[in-house]
Amino acid sequence: xxxxxxxxxxxxxxxxxxxxxxxxxxxxxxxxxxxxxxxxxxxxxxxxxxxxxxxxxxxxxxxxxxxxxxxxxxxxxxxxxxxxxxxxxxxxxxxxxxxxxxxxxxxxxxxxxxxxxxxxxxxxxxxxxxxxxxxxxxxxxxxxxxxxxxxxxxxxxxxxxxxxxxxxxxxxxxxxxxxxxxxxxxxxxxxxxxxxxxxxxxxxxxxxxxxxxxxxxxxxxxxxxxxxxxxxxxxxxxxxxxxxxxxxxxxxxxxxxxxxxxxxxxxxxxxxxxxxxxxxxxxxxxxxxxxxxxxxxxxxxxxxxxxxxxxxxxxxxxxxxxxxxxxxxxxxxxxxxxxxxxxxxxxxxxxxxxxxxxxxxxxxxxxxxxxxxxxxxxxxxxxxxxxx
Length: 388
Ligand code: LLP
Prior knowledge:
- The chain is 29% helix and 23% strand.
- It has 2 domains: 8-18 and 276-387, Beta Barrel (Lyase, Ornithine Decarboxylase, Chain A, domain 1); 23-275, TIM Barrel (Alpha-Beta Barrel).
- Strands 1, 11, 12, 13, 14, 15, 16 and 17 form an 8-stranded mixed sheet that branches. An 8-stranded parallel β-barrel has the order 2-3-4-5-6-8-9-10, surrounded by 4 helices.
- The chain contains 11 helices and 17 strands.
């Protein structure tokens, strides 16, 4: 198996576990996105901060000129601190607290993605009290399925997200009558880790239908269509496929979504931006031979990368220290949970105590979902630049 390239000698003296971000790959990924979005008039990316809010990572994304998609006041503040202009920040989430709405209004964010009528009423009220007008988009649940893990599909009627299509006209009419909100767009998101472009085609078709319907209702064309994120990465081949096929992704929208003249198209990619540039670096503590299997017990656990435990997710694992013949291991962490397992029956070069192990494709939903369960310390992070 081809291995990733890491500053192995520099890693030797570092306390494990830690996250390592290949910022060269991150920059190449950002350039690849820019190259594709620049081809199309009005395409704009708000990076989904929920996938990774590491300061060093955010700086690269901000400097590449992307905006931010936030889902909490904490994320908004993190982005403001990182230097993202407020007018490039959008704010989604089914349960926005009053202080979060106030923070967004004070900062002057681009718009709120509103998920219910009660939320709309509260935003209108708070904006009124503050003497401001809140720009809002409605998150519409398009009832489009996606070929992905059941826990990360969001665009079905059964999911908690968004406003049902049948209620779209009603909510728009309500918003139009409100004094302290300005209706600027429609927002959609069908799920995450989607690799089949047909799923995005289905979303485009649904948006086309909805826009046609709005026209028949004499509702003025909205300024922005926001299609959320969801483009997946190749978890099985991080070395062969480090950069997602952004051309296919953006071309899908260019070919299938009928934007109205002057309309802007907003994207909220997270995983596709940060997923492949990050690895969780851990050290083998013990190799334990059981009667039917052997375990490689490493010093990272579900506390540092919860995806395998939570979604049964596969991450490529590489032993950076060994080139011996391969043996099979269950690669497990030190946490007191059986689900604290990174992979079962996984082939690694013969592994021994002290070997450095890289768990790949951990840049998205890795560090950001870390916890302190078992009173563990949150690990540190390094980037390519730290070793130059
Ligand atoms: N926009 C909205 C409204 C979202 O809910 C999400 C992700 C995104 C954008 C970014 O999606 P992406 O481009 O990263 O697929 N923790 C899970 C993923 C949860 C995704 C939640 N929403 C995982 O580790 O797979």
